[in-house]
Write a structure and sequence with these properties.
The chain has about 750 residues and is mainly alpha-helical. The chain is about 75% helix and about 0% strand. The chain has 26 helices and 4 strands.
Length: about 750
């Protein structure tokens, strides 16, 4: 096998040698590495093959050199022959060059002169060209300086803009242009500073003369408003036209601070012919100039912020309230303030300023105005109530009657038929209150004038403010009046009568408002007056106060009672305090004849019930330990007088013995003790048809105990012990049975 592999190795070595011969020496490494990777002794055989190949190449080189040697010798020989001719030619060329150089020196000098002249011409042309580019820049810069000197700042800014965008870029490579470009921002800042300085001077001047300017503007607006109002009234219009002002074209000379001076200041005839407007008094050119400058410089926002800030500061200084201004409670002063705000708003609106916030402020002032009106009218109502005599209004003649009716819508067919002199049911405060409510409506209407509001809105405002007057102010005054200690029953009765007539007059107040505003009451959103509830509440409060004061008066009479509870026999007549009380009730209820029937009946029933309860409490007083039969008889006489009073119909309208039933508890109790009908009471107790149905066992027991204690001191029961001890035992038995009933009720 080794012998068989030898030809293959020889063939591989041939391939490697061919590859080495045809490949760059830098890439021979991988080829040589393959020799060492083959079989053992491959390297030795390859070296032998390589030596053989080298010897072959050496023989080929030697053959080639032998073949060309003669030609090489011939060429060297020919070259040696040409060498002499070459040296000769070199000498001739050198001599020719020398002679040529000597001949061209003059031409070279002239050529250099021509070149120098050509360069100068080209430089001059370039210079002229560049100067033609620079001259406009210099002219514009000179123009800029002139504009700055003459304070034509807006034009100067335009010139700067042209310099930066058009001229300087053409010659930006020159130093003087660079200096110009660097100087332009500084000039802009100087212009800004100068224009701002002029603006500050203007603001300072306008602050000093703002009073004069404002006075002129407001006076003109007021004159225009008066004129429009007059024309509107003549034309029958119910709206107010927005103010429009025209400016005249008088010539004025400008002062540096922005104010104007008339060219003919001493010409009085011109002053009479032409009227100065607020804009005639002010030159706004510093403002516009500064605005334009800052706009061009792209800094308009800075100008606007500064100008607005300064004007706001000036406005705050002008509108700053005084430190000692207290809460305003004078409606006339508030109304004057409103008129000033309206004129001020019309003035601003005439110059194109928005005034919606001012009118919003007026709505707030309106609420304040209404509050001051309510406080003022509270004092008016209080004074009317304090000066009222709470008596029906006497009228002696028809003229007096017409005067009252003209102030208050009173109509009563029965009273109108009566002859003079006669009395009207209400007191003098009623027409006064009615007139003052109308005055309040007029006063409230004054604030609504010139607010550019529709009739419907004005009608709504009037009705709402009138409702506040009725439901809050007048109602509060009435409630306070009713609660005053010095207001007696007669005054309370008259207050009820007065509120009834005022309640009836509310519809006339609604008609009064309708006539003012020309708004139909059938309108969907029309506010109704709440006077009905106000006067009803006051009347109910007065009725309750009548019941309270009547009961208090009854208590005062009861406190005068001085019973001799251990008396043997009665005096045979009613007690003096009770007769005085009954006389008082009779006279009081006679006054109640003018009240509505239910009020008088309720008061009478309440008084009788309170009297009955007070008398019962007097009998059952825990401090009262003993009661004699004589005292019971005397007490019975007093109760009989109360029953007679109730049956006399002190107030008409009661059916049957309804009023007498107020004393039924007392009557049955006294009858039980007067008749000594205990057997019937105990036998019928609990029956619906019992004769003593209203007698409570506890009440009967308490009174019987008081009479039992009296028997121990030799009073009425002393006869029982002497004459009939069985009766004493009966009393003991009744007491036990009553206690049994009481215990049964409690269990």
């Amino acid at each position: 096998m080794a012998e068989a592999d030898i030809p293959e190795c020889i063939t591989e070595h041939e391939r490697i040698l061919q590859e080495i011969e045809s490949t760059d020496t830098a890439c021979v490494g991988p080829t040589l590495r393959s020799i060492y990777d083959d079989q053992p002794n491959a390297h030795k055989r390859f070296m032998e093959k390589l030596d053989t190949r080298i010897r072959n190449h050496d023989r080929e080189i030697e053959k080639m050199c032998n073949f060309h040697h003669q030609g090489f010798v011939d060429a060297i020989t020919e070259l040696l022959k040409v060498r002499a001719d070459a040296e000769k030619l070199m000498g001739q060329v050198t001599d020719t060059n020398r002679r040529l150089q000597e001949a061209g020196k003059e031409v070279t000098a002239q050529t250099e002169e021509v070149i120098r002249c050509r360069i100068q011409q080209r430089n001059m042309a370039t210079t002229v060209e560049k100067l033609q580019l620079c001259i406009p820049v210099l002219e514009m810069y000179s123009k800029l300086k002139e504009q700055l000197t003459s304070k034509r700042y807006y034009a100067a800014l335009k010139t700067m803009e042209q310099l930066e965008k058009v001229y300087i870029p053409r010659v930006s490579q020159y130093r003087f242009c660079q200096i110009m470009a660097e100087n332009l921002p500084k000039l802009r800042e100087e212009i800004k500073d100068v224009s701002m300085s002029d603006l500050k001077d203007f603001l300072e001047s306008i602050r000093k003369h703002s009073d004069k300017v404002g006075e002129t503007a407001i006076r003109q607006a007021q004159q225009h408003r008066t004129f429009i109002s007059t024309v509107a009234k003549q034309a029958g219009l119910d709206h107010y036209t927005k103010p429009v002002f025209s400016l005249n074209g008088r010539a004025h000379s400008h002062t540096p601070n922005g104010l104007l001076m008339d060219d003919g200041a001493g010409d009085e005839e011109d002053a009479d012919d032409e009227i100065l407007t607020a804009q005639d008094l002010v030159d706004f050119s510093p403002v516009y100039r500064c605005l334009h400058i800052y706009t061009v410089l792209g800094d308009r926002e800075t100008f606007e912020n500064y100008y607005r800030k300064q004007r706001k500061k000036q406005a705050r200084l002008v509108l700053q309230p005084q430190a000692n201004m207290s809460y305003c409670d004078d409606p006339d002063l508030v109304l004057e303030l409103k008129n000033l705000i309206v004129i001020f708003a019309d003035t601003l609106q005439g110059y194109g300023f928005p005034v919606s916030r001012l009118f919003d402020l007026l709505f707030e002032v309106r609420d304040q105005y209404n509050e001051t009106l309510l406080k003022k009218w509270a004092l008016v109502f209080r004074e009317i109530f304090e000066t009222d005599n709470y008596s029906p209004i006497p009228v002696e003649t028809e003229e007096e009657y017409k005067v009252v009716v003209s102030r208050f819508p009173f109509h009563d067919a029965e009273i109108e038929k009566q002859s003079f002199p006669k009395k009207l049911p209400m007191s003098q405060s009623v027409p006064q209150i009615y007139s003052q409510v109308k005055e309040f409506i007029y006063a409230s209407l004054k604030f609504s004038e010139s607010l550019h509001r529709s009739s419907t809105e004005i009608d709504d405002m009037l009705r709402k403010s009138t409702n506040l007057l009725l439901t809050r102010t007048l109602s509060s005054c009435l409630q306070n009046l009713i609660k005053k200690p010095h207001i007696g029953l007669t005054e309370l009765v008259q207050i009820i009568i007065n509120t009834t007539h005022l309640e009836q007059a509310c519809r006339y107040l609604e008609e009064f408002i309708t006539n003012i505003t020309n708004v139909s009451p059938e309108t969907v959103h029309t506010t109704r007056l709440y006077g009905l509830s106000t006067f009803k509440d006051a009347r109910h409060a007065a009725e309750g106060e009548i019941y309270t004061k009547l009961n208090q008066k009854i208590d005062e009479f009861i406190q005068l009672a001085d019973y001799e509870w251990c008396m043997a026999e009665s005096d045979g007549r009613a007690s003096g305090y009770l007769m005085d009380l009954i006389n008082f009730l009779r006279s009081t209820f006679q006054v109640f004849t003018h009240l509505p029937g239910k009020v008088a009946q309720t008061a009478c029933m309440s008084a009788c019930k309170h009297l009955s309860t007070s008398l019962m409490q007097m009998l059952l007083d825990s401090e009262l330990k003993q009661i004699s039969m004589g005292a019971i008889q005397q007490f019975n006489l007093d109760v009989m007088q109360c029953e007679l009073f109730a049956s006399s119909e002190p107030v008409p309208g009661f059916q049957g013995d309804t009023l007498q039933l107020a004393f039924i508890d007392l009557r049955q109790l006294l009858d039980l003790f007067m008749v000594w009908d205990w057997s019937t009471y105990l036998a019928d107790y609990g029956q619906p048809n019992s004769k003593y149905l209203r007698v409570n066992p506890a009440t009967a027991l308490a009174l019987l105990e008081k009479m039992k204690d009296t028997s121990k001191k030799n009073n009425i029961f002393s006869q029982f012990r002497k004459n009939d001890r069985d009766k004493q035992k009966l009393v003991e038995t009744v007491v036990k049975q009553l206690r049994s009933l009481v215990n049964g009720m409690s269990s």
